[in-house]
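Thread: "does anyone have the structure for this chain?"

Original post by V.I.:
We have the sequence but no experimental structure in hand. Need at least a predicted one for the grant figures.
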Amino acid sequence: MIKKPNFLIIGSASRNVGKTELACRIINKYAGVFNITGLKISAVTIQKNISDSENRHYFSGDFEITEETDKQSGKDTARMLRAGASKTYRLKTVIEQMEKAVRAVLERIPNDTLVVCESTSVRNFIEPSVFLLITMKNNVSVKQSYEILFSLADRVIVFDQSDWNFSPDQVIAEKNQWRLAD
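Reply from O.Q.:
Generated one for you, tokens below.
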């Protein structure tokens, strides 16, 4: 386990629960005060029965790291840039190479930079100062990775299709690490 107190990780039980929106609000709150890097990690299994053009996670090799430079690209990493992140990266990796991929992206991020990371499965490899998990209200379909990591969450947040039962103001940045307000 890699200890990274400068990391805030936001994971979820499913898609479309506001992970990127929460990340952007936190980045925006502290961008004028701290140097913040946004990071989005997708751990996938390669689907061999579909073409590359149909696979939205397609990449060659074991993993791919992309630095976002276009604030208008429409990607989640562009949203993080617009929110005030000084840099943002997208890491796509096959699940079996996650640790190797995480170590590679960490080489690009200075230790004195705060990081807001959107990923659930990266919590298996990084111990952040804060780990938030978001679930949909009344959700019965839960990612397996979410169930495994539930006990590691510093806060479980419920999303009701319009807002969370959590305020981004509860996240505090200080001395190159994150914490939750009491």
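V.I.: this helps a lot. The chain has four helices and nine strands.
O.Q.: and The two ends are 26 Å apart (CA to CA).
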